[in-house]
Amino acid sequence: MRRRPTNKNNRGPVPHWLLMVISAVVVLGFVGILVGQAHQGQPTKSADKGPSAPTTKAISRRQDQLENQLQRYFKTVTADGTTGVSFYSLGAKPHSAAAKDATAAQLYRTGHLTAEANAHTPIDSASTYKLFVAGYLFSLHHQGQYPWTAANREGLTRMIVYSENDFAEDFMDTNGLAGLNQFAHQQHAFTPMFIEGETARTTTASLTLILRHLAQQKKPFNHAADQQWLLGLMHKQVYRHGIPAGAQAAKAGTKVADKVGFLGDTNNDAGIVTLPDGEQYILVVTTHGAQPGGETGFKHIAQITQHVQGMVYNPRIIQNLNNP
Fold it and tell me: Which residues span the membrane (predicted)?
């Protein structure tokens, strides 16, 4: 028998199963290229990055909602004309937990949340006028016109911490009222605040303004030592049934530097509030006459404070912004 010539390089036909495998690999590779091109330039999601930051529009919309809520509430609590209210966001203290939260820093930044009602109606200031006396004395001192003797320092301390009257009244009796009224005018506050033989008058807006200057270390509190001295005295003032009580009820550990005023049926409180996470705000509430439910003025102030703080600084607000 004649043998057919052999070719060592010829291994015979390729098996059918192998052709199927090769075809599948080619197809999958081609599909992979198309998918890669479709996703080219698109951001990739990573579980490590967490939720994206809210947009500026989302922050602005939430600020508008909060201000509208505050205005509706303030309209309700001031409807009978016996109460005035003013709120002003101060942002967070530097280096605090709140300052490190990008969403909170945008939402509560200084002056971007404000609300007021009956804020420009003149009322008896009671002892809240002493904030203006303190500011005026700091201003005179830095003009070389008022010495901080031991007696004067003690007088200012008693005026703020215990709301005693003799120091302020002695100063006004000696120096007259014109300088104080001019100072109040320079602060863009209600004037005339002081009229001979009459009770001092002011507005919640005026008290808010001088507290803004104090909190932001602006004139007349533009010297750090003056600012810290007065804030320290206000933190220690002994009448704590108004804003301090309400702020504590809203969040334990909240601190308040405030100045109260009470005279007859007038109860006023003007304070700078600092939450445990470092967020700060100004709240001024002035009351006179009978309060809802027969409550005292200061209890009414505490209830307003608790409601406002709980409304504006609810942790769920930040959570919802970060996880829409």
Answer: 16-36
Residue 222 located in a structural domain: yes
| Domain limits for position 212 | 57-322
Residue 105 CA, distance from chain mean position: 10
For residue 124, the SS3 value is strand
* CATH, residue 296: 3.40.710.10
Residue 254 lies in a domain: yes
Query: Which pLDDT tens digit goes with each residue over 221-270?
Result: 999 999 999 999 999 999 999 999 999 999 999 999 999 999 999 999 99
Q: What is the DSSP string of 209-246?
A: HHHHHHHTT-TTS-SHHHHHHHHHHHHH-S--TTHHHH
* Closest-CA residue to 163 (of 197, 129, 114, 188): 129
Give the type of residue at 173: D
Q: What is the dihedral of CA 257, 268, 297, 232, to 10 degrees?
A: 20
Q: What is this structure's pTM?
A: 0.84
In a domain, 43, yes or no: no
What total number of domains does the chain contain? 1
